[in-house]
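Exercise 7. Given the components listed, write out the predicted structure of the assembled complex. Treat all entries as one system.
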Amino acid sequence: MIRLTQIRKSFGRNEVLKGIDLTVRKGEVVAILGPSGSGKTTLLRCINYLERPSDGEIEIGELRVKCKHPSKQEIHRLRGKSAMVFQQYNLFKHKTAAENVMEGLVVVQKVPKEEARKRSVELLEKVGLGAKLDAYPSQLSGGQQQRVGIARALALNPEVILFDEPTSALDPELVGEVLAVIRKIAKEGITMIIVTHEMNFAQEVANRVVFMDQGAVVEEGAPNELFRSPKEERTRQFLQRMTPEAVYSI
Amino acid sequence: MGTSFDISYVFDYFVKLLPYIRITLTIVGCSLLIGLGIGLLVALPRMYRIPVLQRFSQVYVSFFRGTPILIQLFLFYYGMPEMLKLIHIDVTKVPALYFVIFAYALHTGAFLSESIRGAVGAVDRGQVEAAYAVGMTGYQAFGRIVLPQALGIAIPVFANLVIAVLKDTSLAFSLGIMELTGKSQTLPTMSQHFFEAYLSLALIYFIISIALEKLFFAVERRLLRYEGDRDRDGRAASGRKWLNRRFSGRLELQKEGARP
Ligand SMILES: Nc1ncnc2c1ncn2[C@@H]1O[C@H](COP(=O)(O)OP(=O)(O)O)[C@@H](O)[C@H]1O
Ligand SMILES: [Mg+2]
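Answer.
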């Protein structure tokens, strides 16, 4: 289980997260929606301390970290409990697909190389890249790179996988293959928090949807409820802008 | 000069100079190795913005980039024994070669620290973040992800630096070191065929430079084999631009200094 309590984050004078509370149960898939600049990325990055929250508390599994004065060790342990899939993939450029997936296992979890390689091959086969084990990121399409990114996250067997707009940097024709992989692993009961602008995908894959605006959670609920009958005006306006009908009517 | 050109001297001197390549390459090799250590040490305070040390390393780099290598050689050769005498260390019996290597090492270190800083800064920030997200410590992220990529990026600059140092070692003769240039001065004293001696000397430097260039090119291809051709060409071009700026830097620094 993940529990965020009153997470705050400021960049200088600009308060980007204004006290976020969020609980994600084991095996739950939570989609975070919200306009650009609302703090979605910052929230995800606070969970693994790529950003240092100004205040609040993060609880993952049995680990509980007060954000104000975390020790180096707490940060390290926190990072060990989550994995992240980046918008820009961020695969290790100088390592092959298989090495990318192995890296965390070997270096962080101290899994013997052969075993790590075996697991890496399994995972790459699972995301449909069994034929690209020894390809470097520069030799892969965006969709393929992001699937390696997902395999890399899965390899760590984390408590939660954080997805930050995993398909936003992709050409439209490559979005489908990545969403298909996420759909597949969602069914396996892996806990996930997904920031996305793909409304249909969020509705279909998430157990719960959270709508954020201006650094706060405006509304959350089951996908069907939230998409069909949002309670808040801001949610309604956002959904209207994001649904295809609105695009056609321009 | 009074002697007419005789090509047989060129061959003769060429062969006679060959053994002295060893001394030249020793100076180059040692000063690069030591310079690499110094460069890394000096780059760290600036990369991690360590308050006082950062200032020191800045002064060090500006000094060695902003003064002629020949003057640096003299300063070390004549100045250091005097300084050390003050703390009762007698170095009058230490061979001049050691001073020369030390001076070149400090000189090279200044340039290397700048290259290292540039190369590490050129590694995509997302790479470190991915390493942290995977659970690596800062050291692991630096050693396994940043440094290998920075090395690849730094190779073209490093190659030029090595060749620059190779050529700069020719100044060591002014302290009486018998490396290539030093020897080429003494060889023709009997025959008076100075021109032929310099010609063979130029040939030798030229051949070593070409060989080093080829070697580094091969190393670069190997280190950057993970890059697509497109990336590599693009980066090589920008790298070269950056490098030109670096190396005309010795002149430019004086101009910069004159600016208010
Ligand atoms: N490193 C940073 N420094 C300063 N401001 C930042 C930084 N990162 C994000 N911000 C600001 O925080 C706000 C939220 O950004 P972000 O979390 O990226 O939003 P989202 O992912 O919802 O689009 C934005 O106003 C952005 O300008
Ligand atoms: Mg974002």
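Discussion: DSSP finds eleven helices and no strands in chain B. Confidence is low (pLDDT under 50) at residues 245-260 of chain B.
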